[in-house]
Amino acid sequence: MNIEIITTPNDTLKESGFGTLKACNSVLETIQRIGHNVRLNLCKTKDNLDGVVKRRPELVILAVKYIHVENEADIWLSDYLAHHGINFTGSSREVLEFDSNKVLAKTHLANKGIKTANYFIAIPGQYKKESDLPITFPLFVKPLDAANGNGIDDLSFVTSFTDYESKVASLYDTFNLPVLVEKYLDGREFTVAIIKTRNKKIIASAVEVIPPTSTHGLRILGAQAKKDDSEKLIEIVDDEVKNRVTTLAIDAFNSLGARDFGRIDIKTNNHGECFFMEANLVPGMTYGSSYFPEACDIANDFAYDKVIELLLAGGLARACSNTPPHLYPGSDNNLVAAI
User: Fold this and answer.
1) Strand pairing partners for 5?
2) Which residues share a beta bridge with 207?
3) The pTM is what?
4) Rounded-to-integer distance, Cα 77 and Cα 95, Å
5) What SS3 state is found at 119?
6) What is the pLDDT of residues 313-331, one digit of tens each?
7) CB-based contact 92:259 (threshold 8 Å)
8) Environment class of 229 (CB within 10 Å of its CB; exposed 0-12, middle 13-18, buried 19+)
9) Which H or E run includes 239?
10) CB neighbour list of residue 146: distance below 8 Å, 6 or more residues apart
């Protein structure tokens, strides 16, 4: 089959998708070994995307969610390809919004009965004193829509109103958006890679994430830890814990309406209760370090090539079907038609 990969320069994005160009080349080389014709496109403009549409590939792999165009609105690739009747991997624009906006995802899932950490959003000066805060300390303060641990560090954990005000102001100045404030969960951290295969079977790979110990004795998975690759992913040996984590992740994935694949992050409190934290629906694919392929290896003994093969399965099945591309489940046009 003719397959194309779309990515864009990462320095223009808050969220880097599959990762660097090196990661995209690893995906490309795997697809070549599988036996498909594949092309990698570094798209910067709408003209670049028009070239992909003109070639009419049977499947486009979206390594990023959108393309940033200077002085214009971002071009969301799922919207663009669905409009042109091109088959693509991953979820629709509507669903990908849950990836970009943590509060949107948490609110949606809470309304469906899925546990998530208590939270509120804030701007500097909104609350005048500690007793005004909707949730009591300790709290965890982080950006509303940044990925890869950006904006998260030791100062994200706050136990006083002064520290709270300082961190909210710092994040607001950096990201120019309201800030997400969550009840701090003092338990374990997990991530679950989920793949929905061509026969709609779900393969879940759940692992525990062990961040490095910070200077204050906390384990905080921030930007520096991810940059240094200093955190560890380990197998979950307790079957009961694995089942609880996996069940919550699959419920969240399905309730968000995600398609093909995604990664769900989960944390527990000190009683072992599981809570949804966030969804990554265009997860990193860097060979040897990204959570998604590493989790698949640790939990299910899948080599990198096997992971990429499984990621393509849903998209290739759609390419072989007789359904028009604009009516594929997960396309924005199909969602509109179904309403």
Assistant:
1) 40, 61
2) 191, 235
3) 0.90
4) 13
5) strand
6) 999 999 988 565 545 555 4
7) yes
8) exposed
9) helix 239-256
10) 14, 15, 175
